[in-house]
Automatic annotation (TrEMBL):
This is Histidine kinase. Pfam families: 2TM, His_kinase. Coiled coil: none annotated. One of its GO terms (cellular component) is membrane. It comes from Chryseobacterium soli.
Length: 438
């Protein structure tokens, strides 16, 4: 145990010894005070250290955060067994060795059964306090740890997303300049037209590259402009077909995804007037498909891997829906998820994590309130029991506050852990999870 806990047990022993010495000891002698302190220290240290070591052992073997139900069951069983043994041991040392009020035979004959039962209940209340305190401390640590981890994940994802987006700017410029360079030699007039179109397209790239999602309508309009630019170079060698449903126009895709896929089609396939490359962009349920007839180039330089990989990674950071690729002997198709609403994007994840932290703080406050109630119960009820048994042992009245407060405590526990404000949210979440699995 920690030194701080041992000091607390020492002060508890001194306080308890003074209480019994001043109010329940007839002869105020040094010997009686030392005896009172020895008995108080016996119970305080045996029960405190025993339950503390038990709680530390269970925290290492079965942490609350990993197996709450299993830990609760094992804690209850171990607390009952441990405190039963500790109380009988303390009572034996107290009555047989310290006070010499009974012989070993008398102690085990049943004469002290009521005292043993009474002390076991007191020990269980103290143990409940210690384990509740341990649970609350671990809950705070776990909550803070989870929030910190979520913040790190969100920050890392944000940095990764920004890195992916920053690939688009130089990537597009590099490829466009390559096309322009080839056109200058082949067709200077087309090169001038290409330069004008390129400036218009590059403006869109600069406007959209910092966004996480854009509407399908904006992306389609940009793709058509980009196709016109490609037509300037390849003329009849490339043909583009757009068959996108109008209802999909207000939905969302990642920006510049069509441009990257169109670029891949041109880069990986040959196109001639006799064998034109046909690229089709169309809707399929809630998916935007980009399909081309397969005319692979025989000698291809190793790809930089920016295009398709970039799109897949950006989608993975924004949604659980995947980008699918279909390939056959005749065609190559990429399926992009079309999002009906903007999800919790990367830029808002840190804000959402802050809200989650506030919610976690509120939850910890509720649990702290319950355990504060439990701790008060564990302190006040034993005091009332002692007062009752000392002042009027024949008139047992402590059962009434113990039962009444106990019912209130149970209701408080149900409100915090079972039927509280979060119960409806948990039920809704479970129903939605079941529907998603179907």
């Amino acid at each position: 145990m920690k030194r701080k806990n041992l000091i607390v047990l020492l002060w508890v022993s001194i306080g308890t010894a003074l209480f019994f010495f001043l109010f329940f000891t007839d002869e105020k002698t040094l010997h009686n005070f030392i005896l009172s302190f020895a008995i108080s220290a016996l119970y305080s240290f045996f029960l405190g250290i025993g339950n503390g070591l038990l709680n530390d052992f269970l925290n290492k073997k079965i942490p609350w955060s990993e197996a709450t139900t299993k830990r609760a069951v094992i804690s209850i069983i171990s607390i009952l067994v441990a405190n039963f043994i500790l109380v009988y041991l303390c009572n034996y040392i107290n009555f047989v060795i310290f006070q010499k009020a009974a012989t070993p035979a008398e102690f085990f004959s049943g004469k002290y059964n009521f005292m043993n039962w009474f002390m076991v209940n007191i020990a269980l209340l103290i143990s409940a306090f210690l384990h509740a305190k341990g649970f609350m401390e671990e809950l705070k640590k776990t909550s803070k740890k989870e929030v910190v981890e979520q913040k790190l994940i969100a920050t890392s994802a944000n940095a990764q997303f920004e890195s992916l987006k920053n690939q688009l700017d130089p990537h597009f410029l590099f490829n466009s300049l390559n096309v322009l360079s080839s056109l200058i030699d082949e067709n200077p007039k087309q090169a001038q037209k290409f330069t004008a179109s390129m400036s218009k397209i590059y403006r869109y790239v600069l406007e959209q590259k910092d966004k996480e999602l854009v509407t399908v309508e904006d992306e389609i309009e940009f793709a058509k402009t980009y196709c016109d630019l490609l037509k300037t170079r390849f003329e009849d060698s490339v043909d583009f077909i757009f068959e996108v449903n109008k209802e999909d126009y207000r939905r969302y895709v990642v920006p510049l995804s069509l441009q990257l896929l169109l670029e891949n089609c041109i880069k990986h396939n040959f196109a001639t007037s006799s064998k034109p490359l046909i690229i089709k962009i169309f809707s399929e349920n809630d998916i935007l498909c980009i399909e081309n007839n397969l005319q692979e180039r025989e000698q291809m330089k190793e790809s930089a891997g920016i295009g398709l990989a970039n799109i897949v990674q950006r989608y993975s950071l924004l949604t659980k829906r995947n980008v699918f690729i279909e390939r056959s002997e005749d065609y190559f198709k990429v399926k992009l998820p079309v999002l009906s609403v903007k999800p919790n994007t990367i830029s808002t994840k840190i804000d959402n994590t802050d809200k989650a932290y506030e919610k976690a703080q509120k939850r910890v406050k509720e649990i702290k309130g319950f355990y504060g109630n439990l701790i008060s119960y564990c302190i006040v009820i034993p005091f009332l029991i002692i007062v009752n048994l000392v002042t009027s042992p024949k008139n047992i009245w402590f059962f009434f506050p113990m039962l009444g407060w106990g019912i209130g405590l149970a209701a408080h526990a149900m409100n915090v852990f079972a039927i509280g404000k979060n119960w409806e949210e948990r039920k809704i979440r479970k129903i939605l999870e079941k529907q998603n699995k179907q």
